[in-house]
Amino acid sequence: MTYHDILTQHRSEEPDVETIVCINVDASTEDLADDLPCSVGVHPRSVEDDVDDLLLLARDLSHEPSVVAIGGCGLDRAIRADWVQQIHAFEDQVSLSELACKPMIVHCVRAHADVVTLYRELQAEQPWIISGFDKGPDTLERIMDAGIYVSFGAAVMKADSPAAQSAAVVAADRLFLETGYQTEYTIKQIYHQVAQLRGETVEQLCETIQQNFDAMFKQ
Fold it and tell me: What is the rounded distance in angstroms from the CA atom of residue 12 to the CA atom of residue 9?
């Protein structure tokens, strides 16, 4: 039984945990930390005057065999970063995802409608996963109707949170889990919580996410 953490800042040393470390490309990035599975992308917080240089670096790194996804990249209306620049950086990375034939891990804050619109307008063929999903079932339904996947993180640990409500009803074949950028909860704790919310065993949840993981990242 394997626990998959599709977005994290820390490589797990537990033999039954497989992690995809997220490398947010910024001015300090030179190369990949190791040759284990990772994602690379320019986060909205890194959208600055030199964003094109960062995008070029992300493009170069994306060709490494250990890079299994593009991201976290996306749109964030809760930060001051220029919206036009955010759109530019995001669309560039959508293009990179398509060229590299690797899925997108999408950071999305107050921009779910924008992400759905772009997914449809750009006619993306590579799958998108919205990370750290923390919206209720109504938004979840619109996301799934568009064909986009979701990944839940620490927000599900609050039983009355929108994330917990959505984790309980999300379609099994659209589901991923992550620890994200926090260290309070482990991926195993998140798995146990989501299994309880869904009324199934941890073993069943692991099997479901293993199938999703193989279909998404081992093409």
Answer: 10
pLDDT tens-digit profile of 100-120? Answer: 999 999 999 999 999 999 999
d(CA 97, CA 59): 9
Encoding tokens for residue 65? Answer: 């065999």
Domain housing 85: 3-217
- The per-residue pLDDT for range 147-163, each reduced to its tens digit, is 999 999 999 999 999 99
pTM (2 decimals)?
Answer: 0.96
Domains contained in the chain, number: 1
The enclosing domain of 195 has a CATH number of 3.20.20.140
End-to-end CA distance of the chain: 21
- Would you list the DSSP string of 103-161? -EEEEEES-HHHHHHHHHHTT--S-EEETT----HHHHHHHHHHT-EEEE-GGGGSTTS
